[in-house]
Amino acid sequence: MKRFILQRLGLAVITVFLVCVIVFFLTHILPGDVARQYLGRGATEDDLRDFRRLFDLDKPLLTQLFSWINDLIHFDLGQSMQYRGPVSELLGPAIGYSSKLAAVAFLIIVPLSIAGGVLAAVNRGKKIDRAITVGGLSAAVIPEFVWAIILVLLFGVTFEIFPVTAFPGKGDKTVLNQIWHLVLPSISLLLVLFGYIARITRAGVIEALDSDYMRTAVLKGLTRRKAVIKHVLRNALLPTIAVIASQVPYLIGGLIAVEIVFNYPGFGTILKGAVDARDYSVLQAGVVVSSLVIVSFQLIADILFAVLNPRIRQKISE
Amino acid sequence: MSDAPALEFRDLEVAYTVRGIDREVLRKVSFSIAPGEAYGLVGESGCGKSTAAFAAMRYLPRNGKITSGSILFEGQDIVGMSTSDINTLRRSAISMVYQNPATALNPTIRIGDQVAEVFALQGLSKSDALAKVEQALIKVQIADPTKVMRRYAHQLSGGMAQRVVIAMALASNPRLLVMDEPTTGLDATVEAEVLDLVRKLRKESGTAVLFISHNLGVIRHMCDRVGVLYAGALVEQGATEDIFSNPSHPYTVGLLRCIPRGGLHKNTDRLDTIPGTPPALGTHFDGCVFADRCALVEDKCRTTQPEMVTVGQSHVARCFHTDKAGSMPRAIDTVSVSVSQNPNRATTGTRLLDIDHLSKAFTQDGHAVHVVNDVSLQVGVGETLGLVGESGAGKTTIAKLILGLYGSDSGSHVVLDGKDLAGTLNKRDIKDVGAMQIVFQNPDQALNRRHSVTRIVGRAVQKLRGLSADDSTDRAHELLSGMRVEATLHSARPVQLSGGLKQRVAISRAFAGAPQLVVCDEPTSALDVSVQATILNLLVDLQKQDGTSFIFISHDLGVVRYISDKIAVLYLGRVVEFGDSNRVFQGPHHPYTEALLSSVPNIDGSVRKRIPLTGVIPSPSNPPSGCVLHPRCPRMAGSGVEHLCTSVEPALTEVEPGHFMRCHIPLDQLRTVQTQ
User: How far is B228 from B553, CA to CA, in rounded Å?
Assistant: First the structure.
């Protein structure tokens, strides 16, 4: 097991490293002189040279790459071109905000989607099943930013139940109020992810319901409810875990769009600002951070999958 | 309450709803099982056996329902019972043992916890329940219960898994035990052990048993009374002895006749078949359900449903001709094969295939595992070599090595018709590939379901013979017709065919390249006995006509005996006995062969003392010292050569002309102990 985890960890490190290299070259092959773009036509040669020196742009490309990666390893994300301050000071709080939104969204999406999937499966073919499957699928075809706007208009403007922004701003900063502000953005993400996760859960649960061991459990005299809880869920949720983990990249993409709509000072808003301002150092750091998040979730999913499945666990320990 | 039968079916009708239409699966089935009695239900697949078994548990598939009649457990009707009452019964009075024990156990819960659940349902605390599990596992003769309790289902062998399922079923001290094909898919020796165990436990507990099996031999050994099901109707019922000695329904007679029983051989006897095919699910009958396939059919049979007729003491049959059934004319399918392609074959008996020092080691975790160990065998032209042995003995691996699907280790030779073949398939030229072909156990998986029957066979012809597309299609049609796959079915896809027809297509494919040798890997194991008989007849016809040789792998010793000229008995990748079919079966046997033969429950009812093989098959990665059989050998103790058995591996020696054995015990000594 230890070997398996180390092996996966090694793979994760390699993945992140490759992402760094690719991101670096992608941002550096963009045409145009970065310094000139930033400083404008009026900049003198001295200004340009200073700017280039500040951001190491005068060094050879490979040297730039290695010093950048070296800095990353030492948790130095570099200097923002736009704000002339450390990127970490910019990204740090933003990541904090985004994590809050992601956590609230995750806590709403995962239990609800799994519950929906289980409910659909145990009521296979009935109205409730059709409502969940068809409803989930229909909701998923509308992008999250459209949902976000619809939700804001409906529950924020027309009915005024929820706040129209995701950030309390200067207002009440209690945890409850913060969460209250995050509900609407989370729901717009939920609407898109629900159908997918619920479907996978439903398929897994149905397979387990039709299994011989479920029949054994029922014929032992267990009530259906107990049999489902004890014998079906564990086996059925295995594939679901992998699916949820695979949706993390999507969740990050969705966060960016939703944050912008709800005017939330998170990771996505910063990243979008960096794109608009061609702030390459922020952009690079942002992509690396998000790849780290994605890879870690995949790693967690792999390990969980192995821990829950004795068959894989045994193979690993052999 | 004590007088009431343990289980009674009264005019039970069950239907499955398929595409909105109710299709009858059980037709007014009535029988009863006395407390402590073992009642067997036999019949071919699709006759409703399993439906009856699950109905007794009141557990039907989602589309199944009881349309009329009643099921009484100790006098209580369970059809209309509330869910909580039926749960109480399942917890305390009725249990079930399933056909496939490996999937019947939950893959993610430890064995101990799964068995403990049954005790917990009776209200025991978790620790008390776990303590009881240990006793329960000891009761089903699991030697190391604490170790097994910590395992997961996939870590158990088939026999072990079935013991666990039986332990689970008996944990509630049931008064009725429903066993649905409990030993199907297990090795003969394991099957014998499980059956012995069930018989012993039944004697101790006095539990009534509803025993479902397609295997007449097993039924004969396990049951007090038998019911024969055909197309969902009970056609005959009586005491086991009466059913087997005086079968009175033409279907029962036919079933018994098509089994290759001891002594029959392809050179002297052609197997009986039951003409036609079983009716589709839910077919409506005005008259007798069996009329379409019956040799004694009259007009009356097609219009009037026969009643149960008493033919002996509590022996009844649903037929107008019970008196004539026993002596009804034999149903022998006609020889119609005409796929001849090699008129100039050498005469029968000349050496065709020479397997010389065939070995194969797989690497597992850096260790070499010798799966096949120095196997040397010969097959003559027009001969059949039977390969027998428990699973894991290396039968299929040997077949794959011969065919070049695996590469064999250096020093191994496969010589076909004087030509030393390359080790792997891709190095052999196409003619050699066509010359040796295979028929697999499961035609469902072996045939491409997206291709038509013609295309499946035509492609093989095209590849192996280098014919044009048109010519190969013509040839494919010839082959298929020769195998009696009707022209109307040539454009069908495999899913539209019955199991027997699918296997005919698979055989046609194997014969596409005019093979000299065909490996048949359990070709009839997935088929019903009546279909098995037609397939075996077909293979024999092909052999007689073309001089094709076969290597025939089967766990069914009756089938192997019928079709084989020579037999090789394998144990742990080694040939332990090799010789003429008759010799090997009549003995004196190798101790392993003896144990194997004695474990088969045969249908002629002769009670043979079972020579048990104790312990489990050792892993080929760590074979025992000396003779690999010695830890399990039934004849080593008292043989006087124990010191040799445990230290020196015996060589395969010719103990009498044409009879080879790998054993230290002298032949005469074996003969003496085996005839006692």
Answer: 30
Using CB atoms, which residue from A211, A234, A308 is nearest to B103? A211
Q: Cβ separation of B104 and A308 shorter than 8 Å? A: no
User: Residues of A numbered 216-255 whose beta carbons fall under 8 angstroms of chain B's beta carbons: which are they?
Assistant: 216-223, 230-231, 234-235
pTM for this predicted structure: 0.83
CB contact under 8 A, B117 and A222: yes
Pairwise CA distance, residues A146 & A191, whole Å: 11
Q: How many domains does chain B have?
A: 4
Which helix (H) or strand (E) segment holds residue B356: the answer is strand B351-364
Chain segment B601-660, per-residue pLDDT in tens: 877 766 667 888 877 778 888 889 999 999 999 999 888 888 999 999 999 999 999 899
Cα gap A113→A109, rounded to integer Å: 6
Q: Are residues B65 and B165 in the same domain?
A: yes
Q: pLDDT tens for residues B91-120?
A: 999 999 998 898 999 998 999 999 999 999
Residues of chain B found within 8 Å of residue A228, distances taken between Cβ atoms? none
Closest chain A residue to the Cα of B62, Cα to Cα: A210
Nearest to A142 by CA among A243, A257, A272: A257
Burial (0-12, 13-18, 19+ Cβ within 10 Å), B587 = middle
B166 lies in the same domain as B75: yes
Domain that holds residue B277: 245-332
**B157 shares its domain with B271:** no
Residue B289 DSSP code: T
Mind listing the pLDDT tens digit for each residue in B477-531?
A: 988 988 888 888 899 898 888 888 899 999 999 998 889 999 999 998 888 888 8
Which residue segments constitute the domains of chain A, with CATH numbers given?
Answer: 2-73 (no CATH), 92-317 (1.10.3720.10)
Both B621 and B479 in one domain: the answer is no
Residues in chain A closer than 8 A to B104 (CB atoms) = 212-213, 215-216
- Chain B environment of A219 (Cβ under 8 Å): 57, 59, 90, 95-96
Are the Cβ atoms of A219 and B92 closer than 8 angstroms?
A: no
Residue B553: which CATH number? 3.40.50.300
Shared domain check, B152 and B63 = yes
Is ipTM strictly over 0.85?
no
Q: Residue A281 contacts by C-beta under 8 Å, 6 or more apart in sequence?
A: A55, A77, A78, A79, A80, A81, A87
- Is B236 inside a domain boundary? no
